């Protein structure tokens, strides 16, 4: 499946949402129903020839029962007046379909019944399905992508994704390295609970980073770290680093990140999680890289 004009010209919009809209849901329905009718889903749910156990299409009832058992209520709401079910349900549904597809290949025609016997190419069917789902999601601005196995991963903010994926920390503190590694993994998860935990782990890492340099007390250690990170820059950049460290510390206290103080403001939207994660990660990555702690 080729890209569309705006993809080729790099004028399509970047992923901006983690929610499946009604319009995208209706396209998902069409994508699945086409595979129900053309025999693609007969790879796992074969409708058999009355004369011999050879696939001739898809057993739609079996498919629906399988989906309903795994994702109750999702595929039974495909009437357009119902709108999109929760995003997690849509992603689960598409992964179930991905497990079940194979490109149908005509073997021979059974003239008596007027149908065609089918074989299936599993690899080709999965690759085509993944490509179509990912193009649909790109066009819809949805921050999820199917990997080559048919499992979804969250793309995250476009500027954050390559930085997170290529970062390898060697701080000399195994606990700090583990916190940073877990934060990088969880922020890319499709589960919003993982994304929230990623932010918590990153703020834990921020607190632990304050003790990396020697010093008589915590303020002295922080000053030494920022001095090293700003080495070779001007006084304005040093001041900017100090101001950012102070602002990030205040954010940790003012919002419900590492604790649930009722006086702290809650984070209710995934975009807030992404924005704060990006800000903290950018700061930590710079400080650790500037002090020789990033491989």
pLDDT under 50 segments (min length 5)?
none
Helix content: 40-55%
What share of the residues does DSSP label as strand, in percent?
A: 5-15%
Radius of gyration: 25 Å
Strand order of the largest sheet: 1-2
> CA-to-CA gap between the ends?
38 Å
H/E series, N to C? HHEEHHEEHEEHHHHHH
Q: Please, how many domains?
A: 2
- Structure summary, number of beta strands: 6
Pairing-aware structural class of the strands and helices?
mainly alpha
Structure description:
This protein has 295 residues and is mostly helical. The protein folds into two domains: 5-154, no CATH class; 160-290. The chain has eleven helices and six strands. The strands form three sheets. The protein has a two-stranded antiparallel ribbon with strand order 1-2. The protein has a two-stranded antiparallel sheet with strand order 3-4.
């Amino acid at each position: 499946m080729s890209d569309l004009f705006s993809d080729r010209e790099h004028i399509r919009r970047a992923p901006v949402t983690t929610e499946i809209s009604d319009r995208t849901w209706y396209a998902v329905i069409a994508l699945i129903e086409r595979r129900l009718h053309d025999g693609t889903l007969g790879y796992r749910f074969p409708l058999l020839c009355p004369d011999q156990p050879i696939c001739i299409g898809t057993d739609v009832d079996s498919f629906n029962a399988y989906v309903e058992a795994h994702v109750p209520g999702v595929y039974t709401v495909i009437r357009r007046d119902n709108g999109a079910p929760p995003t997690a349900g849509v992603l689960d549904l598409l992964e179930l379909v991905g497990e079940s597809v194979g490109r149908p290949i005509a073997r021979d025609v059974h003239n008596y019944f007027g149908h065609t016997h089918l074989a299936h190419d599993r690899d080709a069917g999965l690759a085509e399905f993944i490509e179509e789902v990912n193009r649909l999601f790109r066009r819809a601005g949805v921050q999820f992508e199917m990997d080559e196995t048919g499992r979804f991963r969250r793309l995250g903010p476009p500027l954050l994704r390559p930085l997170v994926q290529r970062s390898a920390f060697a701080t000399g503190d195994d606990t700090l390295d583990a916190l940073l590694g877990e934060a990088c993994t969880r922020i890319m998860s499709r589960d919003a609970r993982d994304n929230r935990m990623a932010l918590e782990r990153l703020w834990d890492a921020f607190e632990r980073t304050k003790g990396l340099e020697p010093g008589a007390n915590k303020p002295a250690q922080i000053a030494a770290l920022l001095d090293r990170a700003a080495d070779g820059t001007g006084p304005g950049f040093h001041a900017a680093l100090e101001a950012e460290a102070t602002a990030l510390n205040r954010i940790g206290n003012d919002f419900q990140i590492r604790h649930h103080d009722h006086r702290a403001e809650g984070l209710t939207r995934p975009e807030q999680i992404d924005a704060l994660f990006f800000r903290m990660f950018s700061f930590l990555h710079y400080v650790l890289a500037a002090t020789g702690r990033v491989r």
